[in-house]
UniProtKB/TrEMBL annotation:
Residue ranges occupied by any Ubiquitin-like domain in the UniProt entry: 30-83
Organism annotation: Eleginops maclovinus (Patagonian blennie)
Name the UniProt record assigns to this protein: Ubiquitin-like domain-containing protein
Highest taxon of the lineage: Eukaryota
CDD domains on file: Ubl_ubiquitin_like
PROSITE patterns in the record: UBIQUITIN_2
Length: 86
């Protein structure tokens, strides 16, 4: 069974993204791999943050560690430049 995710883009668009072919493949997919696929499919820059449920996804982590599964919804947010006030 093909594993797909629903991705809410930073501009409010929603897209179904083909992630991998099966559950075994899902065990090896990192957040960074998903980020690369999302930025390519949505044609957006890589300066995004991804959120699943209420957790910000860390690039070095496996998707499975967050409980991501077939048809999970991933939200993307643009990271805007800014600085700290001192």
């Amino acid at each position: 069974m093909k594993i797909q995710l629903r991705v809410n883009g930073p501009r409010g668009d929603e897209k179904i993204v083909d992630l991998c072919q099966n559950e075994e493949d899902l065990k090896r997919i990192t957040v960074l791999m998903l980020k690369e696929r999302i930025t390519r499919e949505l044609k957006i820059g890589d300066d995004i943050r991804m959120v699943y449920r209420t957790k910000t996804l860390e690039e070095s982590s496996l998707l499975l560690s967050y409980g991501v599964k077939h048809m999970s919804i991933i939200h993307t947010l643009l990271m805007l430049p800014g600085g700290m006030m001192g």
